[in-house]
Write a structure and sequence with these properties.
By secondary structure, the protein is an alpha/beta fold. The chain has 11 helices and 11 strands. It has a domain of 229 residues: Spore Coat Polysaccharide Biosynthesis Protein SpsA, Chain A. It starts with 6 loop residues before the first strand and ends in a 24-residue tail after the last helix.
Length: 350
């Protein structure tokens, strides 16, 4: 790798409702301690989103930034694939449109890539609460419901199964050898109906990148982002749907990659978290009933809801076929490799 790798940061969005979040994210990219960065923002569905983001980039001097409108295939994966095709970086990074990245985020990513055996890097996402009171009662073990990572309890650099889509990067080599994101996977896709989302595009891409390159994915605890937690994300309806969907996605993961389970536990992270819930969270809740029964009851409610919904989603394939159809569970998924064609020409500035 070159001494100062060029980093392409790809952001995608489809709604002008996120403009405030997007502007703050762009400012946090501008404030990076690592300067060899280009930013590619891919807008779709909303021309207002495209026009106002492009104007903000120009008016506020966001360096080396381009704003692109996706008028082709829609969805998170398709939009990210468009960004990849336009990217000029040695490292191609992805963040959600509602995160803020720490000032040394890119610098920490690059440090991790000093090891040539690393194909991808991911980092933690800390909650940025709309309602700060939720921080006092929502169990950390279920932060994955709102795409945050305290459930992992990882404080050190370590190898992991997959990168997390709200905060991840790959060497360009990953896309050259493993192809692009599978467009049937990921959120905001036309297949997102009923009870479940399509399988996770970040997990699928990570497993393919590891298999095709023979390299590793590392978690760097210092490559930090803060992820907004809107109030609706701690509602009962959202929690049930999200937990059910994740359970279903993990079942699909086992079907897509059965060979990964022969020599190792493909769902080892999930099993470790379950052990933590049973051996730490539940005893803590029991003790808290003597000191703060209201909070203890709320924790117990959400814990039971999440575990039941995950299990129901995971074992949904046992449902009678007519019921599977009504819940959008009859998709036949595969993980095809997407053709990769690198961008041509020089770096674009806007």
């Amino acid at each position: 790798m070159v001494e100062t790798p060029h980093v392409s940061v790809i952001i995608t969005s489809y709604t002008a409702k996120r403009l405030g979040d997007i502007f703050e994210l762009l400012n946090s990219i501008k404030a990076q301690t690592y300067s060899n960065i280009e930013t590619i923002f891919v807008a779709e569905r909303s021309r207002e989103l495209y026009d106002r983001t492009k104007a903000y980039v120009q008016e506020n001097g966001i360096p080396n930034a381009r704003v692109i409108f996706n008028d082709g295939e829609l969805g998170l994966s398709a939009a990210r694939n468009l960004g990849i095709k336009k990217a000029m970086g040695d490292i191609i990074a992805f963040v959600d449109d509602d995160v803020l990245i720490s000032p040394d985020w890119a610098e920490e990513m690059i440090k991790t890539y000093e090891d040539d055996s690393v194909i991808a890097v991911t980092g933690p996402a800390f909650p940025l609460w709309d309602d700060e009171s939720a921080a006092s009662w929502f169990p950390e073990e279920f932060y994955w419901i709102m795409s945050c990572t305290a459930w992992s309890a990882w404080d050190d650099m370590k190898e992991v199964r997959n990168a997390w889509g709200m905060n991840m990067s790959f060497r360009r080599e990953a896309f050259e050898k493993a192809g692009l994101f599978t467009s049937d996977f990921g959120l905001c896709n036309s297949k997102r109906t009923g009870w479940v989302d399509p399988p996770s595009e970040d997990v699928d891409m990570s497993l393919r990148a590891r298999a095709k390159t023979g390299k590793h994915i590392f978690y760097n605890p210092n490559a930090k982002v803060r992820h907004r937690v809107y109030n609706y994300r701690i509602s009962q309806s959202f929690i049930k749907q999200r937990a059910y969907s994740v359970g279903y996605q993990r079942r699909i993961l086992k079907k897509l990659y059965p060979e990964n389970g022969k020599d190792s536990d493909l769902l080892s992270q999930e099993h470790q978290l379950l052990r933590r819930i049973l051996t730490r969270l539940f005893p803590d809740i029991a003790r808290q009933f003597f000191t703060n029964p209201v909070i203890a009851w709320r924790k117990l409610q959400v814990s039971v809801t999440v575990l039941f919904s995950v299990a129901l989603g995971y074992y949904s394939y046992l449902l009678p076929k007519p019921l599977r159809r009504s819940h959008n569970l009859d998709h036949s998924y595969s993980a095809p490799e997407r053709d990769y064609k690198p961008a041509k020409g020089g770096i674009y500035y806007q």
